[in-house]
TrEMBL record:
<feature type="coiled-coil region">
    <location>
        <begin position="341"/>
        <end position="384"/>
    </location>
</feature>
<dbReference type="InterPro" id="IPR005094">
    <property type="entry name" value="Endonuclease_MobA/VirD2"/>
</dbReference>
<keyword id="KW-0175">Coiled coil</keyword>
<dbReference type="Pfam" id="PF03432">
    <property type="entry name" value="Relaxase"/>
</dbReference>
<feature type="region of interest" description="Disordered">
    <location>
        <begin position="402"/>
        <end position="430"/>
    </location>
</feature>
<protein>
    <submittedName>
        <fullName>Relaxase/mobilization nuclease-like protein</fullName>
    </submittedName>
</protein>
<feature type="domain" description="MobA/VirD2-like nuclease">
    <location>
        <begin position="26"/>
        <end position="146"/>
    </location>
</feature>
Length: 430
């Protein structure tokens, strides 16, 4: 599992984030331990109230556990990993909350501990927790026999196209693929050895070199979106300055945006609007398909939960009725019969709980497989959009740089809108 963690405050914001149903297909609060409150927001507010008796500001420790995307990991494996992490970091016995998320056909978990020890009113110190989690992550991959990412096995082999949360959020606003965006900018950087070469490489892709607000270099696309080069290239500003020189003689972001806006003709704006409308139509169709699937899955899970709760109540009553009352109950206690019945009831209750968890896990795995098939279609649509966006950027870059005319939009339907043509029926007998 990939383990990412941070010490933080803001319990209310964290609870809202963990319970968001618009960003996740399914959300389940699996465990609340050591809290009086029975809901996530109340539990984190309780942790905040306890922290007010100390000087600690980052009173929560938030951890995400991400197994390989195609692996079906049971709840027990997540719980065992969390218990191991808890012991290794010195958080044993601290109040904690476990939340499961499912999105895009994969399942992962979040665990949040309160760092405040209520007995001593001191925060649990977490020295070198990132290094410890890195070692534990490798250990979990080896224990489960999963294929370990190259960057986890050796940090020197990390994927240069991995993106941060900030980069993902910016790409989401700009409606582009963050990995493709990073690859594009890194390609422009790798094929250039000077400022002029880099600026030309960017312009050929529809991006323009400009001076950032903090004296750094940025790239601006035709929509006016600004990309910090040091962030998207994963290169230190000093290395960028060594190749590109002083950014002071470059146009500012505002000037670049104004220049691009002045060259945007009505035909060019219509061309961009048509491309955006095409993508919006595809996205709407895929979103509707995803929402329909998720809603159906939620209903099935609620039905299973209701069936299991009803069955649990019925079985509990049946086990309780085995214990006789009155004088007969006293006789059973004297002879030891009631003790045997209680032991039998406890064993049956444990087996029933195991059965219910197995049923739930089987349903989750079935629905994850169904969701992965849909996600494959969504990724194909995204790849098509990435290719078309790159083509549009190049066309606009050529037009704005050279003043050439734009090609007419193709009238071929997209792969998502193609329908199978009817084959002519075979002629019948005369």
């Amino acid at each position: 599992m990939i383990l990412k963690a941070s010490q933080r405050a803001g319990g209310k914001q964290l609870a809202v984030h963990l319970l968001r149903m618009d960003e996740n297909d399914h959300v389940e609060v699996h465990e609340l331990r050591g809290f009086v409150a029975d809901d996530l927001n109340g539990a984190f507010h309780e942790a905040y109230a306890v922290s007010r008796g100390t000087k600690c500001r980052q009173f929560l420790f938030s951890l995400s556990l991400n197994p390989p995307e195609t692996e079906n990991v049971p709840v027990e494996a997540f719980e065992a990993a969390i218990d191991t992490i808890e012991e290794r970091l010195g958080l044993t016995g601290q109040p904690r909350a476990i939340v499961f998320h499912e999105k895009e056909g994969r399942r992962h978990a979040h665990c949040v501990w309160s760092r405040i020890d209520a007995q001593t009113m001191r925060a649990v110190h977490l020295p070198h927790f990132k290094r410890k989690l890195h070692d534990l992550s490798r250990q979990l991959y080896l224990e489960h026999g999963w294929r370990m990412p190259a960057g986890l096995a050796d940090s020197r082999n990390r994927d240069p196209l991995n993106f941060t949360r900030q980069e993902w959020q910016q790409a989401r606003r700009a409606k582009v693929d963050p990995k493709a965006q990073k690859a594009l900018l890194q390609e422009c950087w790798s094929v250039s050895d000077s400022r002029a070469a880099f600026a030309n490489a960017l312009a050929a892709k529809g991006y323009y070199l400009a001076q950032g607000d903090r004296r750094g270099f940025v790239a601006v696309d035709y929509k006016g979106e600004v990309y910090s080069l040091s962030r998207w290239l994963s290169i230190k500003p000093k290395e960028i300055a060594a190749r590109l020189g002083d950014p002071q003689d470059l146009p500012t972001v505002e000037r670049t945006r104004a220049d691009l806006a002045s060259r945007m003709t009505a035909k060019l704006r219509a061309h961009i609007a048509a491309a955006d409308a095409e993508f919006a139509e595809r996205k709407m169709a895929m979103d509707a398909k995803r929402l329909q699937l998720v809603q159906r899955q939620r209903v099935v899970r609620q039905d299973l939960k209701a069936v299991q709760e009803t069955r649990t109540i019925l079985e509990s009553r049946q086990r309780a009725n085995r214990l006789r009352k009155g004088l007969l109950g006293l006789w059973d206690w004297v002879t030891g019969r009631s003790k045997k019945i209680r032991e039998q009831n406890a064993q049956e209750a444990a087996l029933a709980g195991k059965r219910d968890r197995a049923e739930k896990q089987a349903l989750i795995e079935q629905q994850l497989a169904e969701r992965r098939r849909l996600q494959h279609e969504i990724r194909q649509a995204r790849r098509i959009h990435t290719v078309e966006t790159g083509r549009l950027n190049r066309e606009i870059g050529t037009y704005l740089t050279m003043g050439t005319s734009l090609p007419e939009p193709t009238m071929e339907p997209s792969p998502l809108r193609r329908t199978r043509r009817r084959q002519p029926s075979a002629p019948g007998p005369e």
